[in-house]
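Dear colleague,

As promised, here are the two records you asked about, laid out in our usual form so they can be pasted straight into your sheet.

NAME FIELD: protein one
SEQUENCE, THEN STRUCTURE:
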Amino acid sequence: MKRHHYVLLVVLAIQIGVAAVVFWPRQVETLGSQAFFPGLTADQIVSVTITNANGDSVTLQKEGGVWILPDAGNYPALVDKIDPLLEGIAGLTGGRLVTRTEGSHRRLQVADDEFVRRVDFETAEGSYTFYMGSSPSYGATHVRLGGEDETYVTDSLSTWDVVATVASWIDTLYWSVSQPEVSRITVENANGTLVFVNEADGNWVLEGLGADEPQNEEAVAATVRQATTINMLRPLGQEEQPEYGLDAPSAVVTLETASGEITLWVGAQDAEDESYVLFTSEADYYVQVANYSVRRLVEGVRDDYIQQPPTPTPQGAPD
């Protein structure tokens, strides 16, 4: 073999060695428990903003010892849901180092502009940011402190604990009244006016049905439920806005009780998610409600409440 062949073999061997070092699979580096915010305690956190990959965001803020949603007219948040979040943030640790390079951030979904969750929080000492990314295994999540390149795997906090929807942090029951307390419900919508009466035996009936018009009990019961219990998607605030559409409502529902009348106004429909704005005379907040939760109030017509006879089977057709 000629000399230059030996040189080529040596160069090839070196290249193979370099490739093996660069591309050989490595185990995740274990460093022990790495505290992200040493010395931080849950009670020091006064504000948290959570943003998800879709751009949805929710801010929780502590005012006078009470947690509220400042972007929704200071609507009260539930402490029993927020406390575990604060404990999780204060105790966030990363025991395994995955990468020290910025080039891996997008792949792990912890980049500044590509993440599963971004969490911004404040204390009296300053502001902090961390990113939560993909899950390499059950119960594990990639996490990176804002401004740092190092990315870890943590099992002390998951993206399921850090949700960017308002409904996750509030009591979604907006308003309700016991059906026996209501004697009469009037529903006015674009299709006309419907009146439901609570009879002495506790059965609800649609007023004005003829003897040959059997009532659709299921439809009546569903409408009464929608009129007496309202669950919300999110609060909007305490001030009416023109875009709420309450000057020309989609439906007006009046409930008569022994203590007086209660009115519900169903306003404009959102073009994107088909939800509606709703307000009641018994509450201080305007809210967004799901389409299905007020559909009968908005779209109901008289024929919906008449039990239709079964469609006859054509002669000769199989049963």
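NAME FIELD: protein two
SEQUENCE, THEN STRUCTURE:
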Amino acid sequence: MHVPNSMLSGSICPVTAAVSTLSLAGAVVAAIKIKTRPAIGRFAAVTALIFAIQMLNFPVANGTSGHLLGGVLAAAMLGTPFGMLSMALVVSVQALFFADGGLAVLGANLLNMSVIGAGLGGLLYQFISARIKQKHAAIGAAAAAAWLSVVIAAGAVCIELAVSGTIAISKSLPAMLSVHALIGIGEAVITGAALYLFGRSVETEKSFAFKVVAPTITALICALAISPFASSSPDGLEYVAQKLSFLKESAPSFVSPFPDYLIPAIGESSISTGLAGLTGVVICVVLAMALSSLIAIGNKMTHQSN
């Protein structure tokens, strides 16, 4: 779902950047104002978990792979404002440090995965869960919202491609939706399983070990030990781009320190991928703790002034 620089051009890049910036600014304001917010450790652990699980591409069909989008999972585990900010951190780290999605299209990727994935996805999760009167309503609602968020985000990519003049939406939309409808099933399963294991933002019965330690350890295991064995098949967007002949290679405008999730000094190997993933987890934890601490300070100042 990460759109590369070569796919978008023109006004769509600054427009998506502006929409994403305003939306995330709104998320920051909402995060500061709310009285109940996730602990700093929880925010960091969930951010690291989503980064690590996104490295685990799973096979889908016809030589295609998919990976977790994670927006609904972040919103369900942290609350929608913090879920949006967690996803924004993940997407930004991926672009800046791992060349996963370019800087010119960072606004579009933030729009698709943070604003739509976690923002709209979080609202869908709340809407569905409020209407399901069963024991595990939250898990079922999260799974349904997760599937929808992937399909909607895929549709948003098609609109962006059409506005950019890359390919007509009449050609890209059927292919993107058919592929991502399948990828969304994996998204739903992973989201439901993770929510069952690590709990929702409103659950109090989960201990510190389940809320913080378990997600962090899972992130470390996924990044260091499992990510080297992820599917190497093209993801849904790459598959459609190859099929419809709009996949173009271009020189990167920014040299990332760990391109393609590898340590350049080591080269292409399982060790290199694992260490790069571990580095990404650490970066996400540090940045998430810093952001959450700043929000906590803003929250305290806001409530003191009131």
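A couple of things worth noting about protein two: The chain has one domain: 5-29+36-305. The beta strands are 58-59, 65-66.

Best,
R.
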